[in-house]
Amino acid sequence: MRQEDRGAKPGRAGSGTGRAALAAAAIMLALTVWGRGLALTLAGALVGPLPALRTALAYGRQAGGSASGASEAAGSESAASSTAPAPALDAAALEHYLVPLLTDADRPADAGAVAETAYGQGSGEKYIACAAGTIKNNTSVPSAEVAAEIENPLPFAIELNSPEPQVLIMHTHATECYRPAEGLWFLPGDGARTTDRAANMCAVGAIMADTLNAAGIHTLHDESLNDYPSYTGSYSNSRAVVQQYLAQYPSIKVVLDVHRDAIEKEDGTRMAPVAEIGGRKAAQVMLICGCDNGDTVSLPNWRQNLRFAAAWEGAMEGMYPGLTRPVLFSYRFYNQDLTTGSLLIEIGTHGNNLNEALYAGQLAANALASLFTGTG
Questions:
Q1: How many other C-beta atoms can be found within 10 angstroms of the C-beta atom of residue 313?
Q2: Which residues fall within 8 angstroms of residue 95, CB to CB, at 6 or more apart?
């Protein structure tokens, strides 16, 4: 995940717009089969793209899809406030996203090696505490100034159960992907890239969007392959996509660019950062927040983005100790000038397998939902 030249070819339109009729049908289905609670989540789909429908289907599977389960949910819903946040996707729902992985019986003789590790929070003058997490300050901004800034409140307010989108999830490097194997090995010739949206960053973005939508945070998910067929110009492409969404949905306050990292030893061994949470391995995650340098990197709202990064980092590490690597605060651009809630998040590396990344995506989104709903 590196940033390349921003002045490249124009971007494409987002892949999820213009599906209002299908969304309306989904709402009718939700009212008939799953009850009013899901319909509240789907109502925003009338102005949003197709991923809201996929959220509905996932949420319906979580509920079991039975008529009796729907009537019980409807009964309990009537006693609850219509503005109360819905529960985020739980461990049972996660099973619907996990995929079959290759076993050691499938391992070829010339497979590459993978080594697991767990990155700690770090210590020393470069590291600033933010609740349970830390920020690694790779800028010339004094650490005391960073520490003071992150004490300020978020620069935006998320409206729960809103018909208007609040969050956009997208992928500048959508074709980044993970190992398809359970064991600590990868297939020879594996370039860790695929256009298959069920196996690349779009799959991780989907579970994150579904988790937020299930919590009453109206979230859109764009699945444009901004790095395909050419990796060069990815950020120019994704910038155009985000700008189109912001023009169409000015209610969007948060834009999350979901990537995965790549860490290798000199001998080619791929590093897999993991944390064991709830008896299951999750890929460790890292937020990246850019900083204005007064010259080549122009981010006038970097302070607001930094507040958001610190709050989310603190929520993730507080709820799931070991899940995060320190926030990287550095002179990076990554189109983070577009909103005051723009961040890049690295979900694991090419050393992690897909299921570890999917679980991490769910946990990261659970923590974000907790932050936005005030339930943490």
A1: 29
A2: none
**To the nearest 10°, the Cα dihedral for 80, 86, 90, 94?**
140
AA identity, residue 323: L
Enumerate the β-bridge partners of residue 161: none
Q: Dihedral sign, CA of 44, 45, 46, 48?
A: positive
3-state secondary structure of 376: coil
Q: Walk along the chain (376 residues) and give the pLDDT tens digit of each residue.
A: 544 333 333 333 344 333 333 443 443 344 333 433 343 334 334 433 444 444 444 444 333 333 323 323 333 322 222 334 445 677 788 999 999 999 999 999 999 999 999 999 999 999 999 999 999 999 999 999 999 999 999 999 999 999 999 999 999 999 999 999 999 999 999 999 999 999 999 999 999 999 999 999 999 999 999 999 999 999 999 999 999 999 999 999 999 999 999 999 999 999 999 999 999 999 999 999 999 999 999 999 999 999 999 999 999 999 999 999 999 999 999 999 999 999 999 999 999 999 999 999 999 999 999 999 998 6
Distance CA 46, CA 23 (A): 6
Residue in 335, 172, 161 with CA at minimum distance from that of residue 246: 335
Question: How are beta strands 219-221 and 167-170 bridged, if at all?
Answer: parallel
Burial 114-140, CB ≥16 within 10 A → b, else e: beeeebebeeeeebbebebbbbbbebe
Taken in order 7, 228, 210, 35, is the CA torsion positive or negative? positive
> Taking a C-beta distance cutoff of 8 angstroms, is the pair 344, 287 a contact?
yes
Helices (H), ranges, the chain = 20-33, 36-43, 51-63, 67-78, 91-94, 143-149, 201-214, 234-248, 302-319, 354-373
Ramachandran sector of residue 242 (left: φ over 0; alpha: ψ -120 to 50; beta: rest)? alpha
Cα separation values, 363 from 160, 213, 221, 319, 360, Å: 19, 14, 17, 9, 5
CB neighbours (10 Å) of residue 285?
Answer: 28
Domains and CATH numbers, the chain: 20-373 (3.40.630.40)
Burial class (CB in 10 A: 0-12, 13-18, 19+), 187: middle
